[in-house]
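Hi Y.,

Following your request, here is the sequence exactly as I used it, all 328 residues.
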Amino acid sequence: MNPSRYWRKLVQTLCLATAAAAPLAAQAQANYPDHPIRIIVPFTAGGSSDIQGRLLAEHLGKLYGRSVVVENRPGAGGHIGGKFVADSGPDGYTLLLGSIGLHATYGVYKSLNYRPAQDLKLITVVAEMPHVVVANPSLQANTLAELTALARAQPETLHFGSAGVGSSVHMVGELYKMAAQAPIVHIPYRGSSAATNDLLGGQIQLLFENVPTTIGYIEAKKLKALAITGATRSPALPDVPTAAEAGLPGLTVTSWTTLAASKDVPDALIEKISADLRRVYADPAFRAGLERLGMTPVGNSPAEAREFVERERARWNKVIETEHITAG
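Below is the corresponding structure, written out as tokens. Let me know if you'd prefer a different format.
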């Protein structure tokens, strides 16, 4: 066969195959979902991400009339779960409850076996939330100023835990070290639950944790709250001053979560899921569920989510570079 005729024939065949596949893809998206959906929470059960994932699964399941299940796949600062979703294929039935660690602070890793910014597609920012500086009741500091004075007077004797290197709980602690010039020592754990247990037991002194994870312990006086990192006081903890009110405006920061999918999921399906999520966010019960946990619902578009995450990535990269943070 003449080479030019061969290539023309090949192009025609590919075009026909694409045209034939397009209606099938459109039909699959129109029928979505026709079987259960998984939301991968890349951290241990019981933490803030897990709580949000289960709340989202409950309300999304009601909307779809389908089972939406949460599956915890912790490890590597969330990147085991992130890689699992990145490789999950184009059908959109495996979603990721993402975090700062997944999308904005992965620069702490010298190498990863996937590219979070390229291999995950953002659907929405689920919620923003302040962190709360919490201490074991035995710590001889009851305010943020007293904590800073103690840390400076006894350098590298106070230890703060985290859900792992690069997690929001870790990065807010590093931001405190920078802003307050307070020489405290980071102890990474495999998830917030383990860190919280050691804080309760007195093995570490501090956590810069999300409100939902700690509020029960604060109310039971098993932990004491020194400050909130949000711009305003948390309705869930109205008596706790903001970091700015406590004299440290440089610690005004929130963490956030996302819902994301594999890069292979078609943009049209991403937009459909995003539109469906807006219906979930219109439900006052869903919003109230987040707000009761000290979270601010967001629910923005995929494009808005991408812009937000890019700004946050640039912000946290500065902290990573300044503090020379690596995950080993």
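The chain has a mean pLDDT of 90.

Thanks again,
Q.
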